[in-house]
Design a protein that fits this description.
Helices cover about 10% and strands about 40% of the residues. The protein is mainly β and about 270 residues long. The longest helix is centred in the first third of the chain and has 28 residues.
């Protein structure tokens, strides 16, 4: 009995020792460290069409077990703009034991501009015309290109087939969440459908605030009556109360009258920025 008791005790001691040994060994083998991502700059400046490599500029990663793992860093996400041209970028890296680390900084897209509108025709219509602004209003973005399908047009005072000056609001948003909003005047008049036509190079332009005199005559391409007679030299430019030193939306009017005293009218919408 004493021998059996001694053997049992020895087995227990050996088993316990082996358990402790393997437990400690396993813990020593286990990697509990987390990688560290280091960013050289708090704000990274890149071009509009920055590549993935450019977005990773100044990013390094290190892990106590694996060493330098910079080549494993990826761009995990890019946020919407927190202000025009500025967003947050999040990086992620994973070590050989699947421990993940992340880091975030800001990215500024140098040269970025908010979406811009354009008009293929002017905002002067006859009450006899069918009005569809979606056919003539377009929008482009320096990141997304043509985003005309994103345009939303609204008006609180427009009434169809009624002459008057109405206000329309156009809004467009790009995929980074940056929106451009513009309020424009819409002119609906009792114009004869045989009225002379005036063609302009542009029907909507953007200007930086300036005290310089703007030559609005340069936007005239030509004018002709219903029979094709040239009336270009008879076009009159009416600038009204446009103030190119003050941000806002203005209208420049172009008028011409044919030999039958029928008047043609075209409008150039001018947006003076901040």
């Amino acid at each position: 009995m004493k021998i059996l008791r001694v053997v049992a005790i020895l087995l227990f001691v050996v088993t316990t020792a082996l358990y402790v040994y393997f437990s400690v060994t396993e813990k020593l083998k286990t990697d509990n460290t987390v990688p560290v991502i280091t960013l050289e700059e708090d704000v990274l400046e890149v071009g509009i069409n920055a590549t993935n490599a450019e977005l990773l500029k100044g990013v390094t990663a290190y892990d106590e077990k694996d060493g330098d793992i910079t080549d494993r860093v990826i761009v995990e996400s890019l946020s919407n703009f927190i202000e025009p041209g500025l967003c947050r970028i999040t990086y992620a890296v994973c070590d050989s034991n699947n421990h993940v680390a992340t880091a975030t900084r800001k990215v500024r897209y140098v040269g970025y501009e908010s979406p811009k509108f354009a008009l293929e025709e002017d905002l002067c219509f006859s009450i006899y015309e069918k009005l569809n602004l979606k056919n003539i209003l377009t929008a482009t973005d320096c990141i997304d290109g043509d985003i005309s399908d994103n345009i939303v047009i609204s008006s609180e005072d427009y009434t169809s087939a009624i002459a008057g000056v109405f206000t329309i609001q156009a809004t467009v948003t790009n995929r980074k969440g940056d929106s451009s909003v513009v309020n424009m005047n819409l002119f609906v008049e009792d114009l004869d459908l045989s009225a002379p036509e005036i063609e302009l190079t542009d029907y909507l332009i953007y200007l930086e605030p300036t005290s310089k005199e703007i030559d609005f005559e340069k936007y005239i391409v030509g004018a002709e009556d219903e029979k094709g007679n040239d009336l270009t030299d008879k076009v009159q430019v009416q600038k009204g109360k446009i103030d190119t030193t003050k941000p806002g939306t203005y209208s420049v009017h172009y008028r011409v009258t044919d030999k039958n005293d029928v008047e043609g009218h075209a409008v150039l919408t001018v947006i003076v920025g901040e």
